[in-house]
């Protein structure tokens, strides 16, 4: 068994696609129209056949309160691995990304947390 897909709930698929590709550096893998929304995935350019991240519409009534509660408590929705958290923090901050936690040592890893502009906090760790 292996992880094939992971999702992040987004409030705007177009804005999410722009942020996750143009800013974070992921690459669009799949875009299939599905009524009002799309089946929209991105992958790491380092592993184009690896785990896909679904930019999942947050249209379900439970999504908004769930996301708001996580953000209010400062809890990241998911985490992405990076080789150098401090360097990635500087790169993203220079692109205008808003961080709610600057790089901090957390035992054997360093983490930082940013706002993905689509209603989520996302952690980077390395």
Please give a structural write-up.
Helices cover 25% and strands 40% of the residues. It is an alpha/beta fold. A 4-stranded mixed sheet has the order 1-4-3-2, with helices on one face. Strands 5-8-7-6 form a 4-stranded mixed sheet. The chain is globular and about 45 Å long. The model has no long low-confidence stretch (mean pLDDT 97).
Query: Would you tell me which CATH topology applies?
Result: 2,3-Dihydroxybiphenyl 1,2-Dioxygenase, domain 1
CATH architecture name: Roll
**Biggest sheet character:** 4 strands, mixed
What is the helix tally? 3
The end-to-end span amounts to 25 Å
Fourth-level CATH superfamily:
2,3-Dihydroxybiphenyl 1,2-Dioxygenase, domain 1
Number of DSSP strand runs: 8
**Approximately what portion of the residues adopt beta-strand conformation?**
35-45%
Unreliable residue runs: none
User: What does the radius of gyration come to?
Assistant: 14 Å
Mean pLDDT: 97
Question: Roughly what percent helix?
Answer: 10-25%
Estimate nothing, just give the exact number of structural domains: 1
Question: What order do the strands of the largest sheet run in, or round the barrel if closed?
Answer: 1-4-3-2
What's the overall geometry?
globular
CATH class descriptor: Alpha Beta
Q: Which class do the helix and strand fractions yield? A: alpha/beta
